[in-house]
Design a protein that fits this description.
0% strand; mainly alpha; elongated
């Protein structure tokens, strides 16, 4: 009688992370849809800068970012509407990074505006928001902490909306 060797694999891979139940993702979907709509509207409102915004040093980057922004917002909206939370988070993270790329040439050539509201807005746009985007993209790619990832990509949009509202209220109060 001959013995046949049996190959036993000692290479065990960890089990994939559990997929959150669909009911748990519905709140994330709604939040992502709201943020994606806001980003889409923001991108469309700035679409005129495709032809070059004189406020930015490198107009080519500004024009490319202005063209890509509404497309990424629409992409995130479609992903979120079709229950694809992870790709929606990644698309919104890329929106934040594209916005950062739009500002970097001006910051490099002129420095950060640290006067008035710029003291809060500039460091947030240039330093904090891209870090939040990278973290959110990392969580989404690893399928971990999707709620936190949603919060991370939502914060810059909500911050900008709050800044716009504060500006509008300030104008309404001062009358100028």
């Amino acid at each position: 009688m001959t013995t046949v060797p049996i190959a036993v694999s000692t290479d065990t891979k960890p089990a994939p992370p559990p997929v959150p139940p669909a009911a748990g993702l519905s709140g994330l979907r709604i939040a992502l849809i709201i943020i994606a709509v806001l980003e889409l509207l923001d991108g469309l409102s700035m679409a005129w800068t495709v032809f070059g915004d004189p406020n930015y040093t490198v107009r080519g980057i500004s024009a490319a970012a202005s063209a890509i922004h509404p497309l990424l917002g629409l992409t995130a909206l479609l992903f979120a509407a079709n229950e694809r939370v992870r790709p929606a988070i990644v698309a919104l993270g890329v929106v934040i990074i594209v916005t950062w790329l739009k500002y970097i040439p001006t910051v490099v050539s002129s420095g950060m505006d640290l006067t008035g509201i710029g003291a809060i807005w500039s460091p947030a746009q240039i330093i904090a928001f891209p870090l939040l985007a990278v973290g959110a993209i990392g969580f989404a790619v690893c399928n971990r902490r999707l709620g936190l990832a949603t919060a991370l990509v939502s914060f810059p949009t909500l911050f900008n909306v709050a800044a716009f509202i504060a500006f509008a209220v300030g104008i309404a109060i001062r009358g100028t």
